[in-house]
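Exam prep: given the inputs below (a chain plus guanosine-5'-diphosphate), describe the expected output before reading on.
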Amino acid sequence: MKIKSSDFIISAVGEKQYPKDDLPEFALAGRSNVGKSSLINTIVNRKKLARTSQQPGKTQTLNFYLINEDLYLVDVPGYGYAKVSKKQRAKFGEMIQDYLETRADLKGLVLLVDARHDPTNDDINMYNYALMLDIPILVVATKMDKLKKMEASQIEQKIGKSLDLNHEQVSFLPFSSVTKLNVDKFWDWIEANM
Ligand code: GDP
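Solution:
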């Protein structure tokens, strides 16, 4: 898919603020620092559409980005940051859940995990929750440029030990914002699910 335009539309805290034009939406979720902002910037070929290295836990909003006037990417707050209070964490969960469970325009969920580490309990919980939503899931292993060739070739098996990737609704994609690995394949998955 050729990216002709990408625009930040709104930081929403609730349903009333979500876009009303009924375009297909794809949510992006992952632990704080997993590389989600970097991925967004990389796939739209912009330096600062999404803000990178924000203070973890600070992004408490759903950020909507309109792509080519055709679809929305929805940046979901990063989860699993230890210094965020339990109360705050519960609040994130509530907002994310409200959105993910009720949004009719939601066509798929991109779950980012760090290729360098085993998925955490938070990753596993989020993944199992996503499976329950019964929508297409793309598991993206970020920061692939940090792996040695041998590790890189086995990344799907490694992640697969923690997240059972053998579901019809699930696809897997290694990714790097540094080398731009698989940017095209990312968009192929989006297009296939629009
Ligand atoms: P976010 O909190 O998930 O939005 O994560 P960011 O996009 O802000 O990235 C967190 C840190 O990881 C930053 O220091 C990035 O430069 C770094 N990072 C993100 N993506 C990659 C990548 O593909 N490769 C490498 N080597 N570093 C990355």
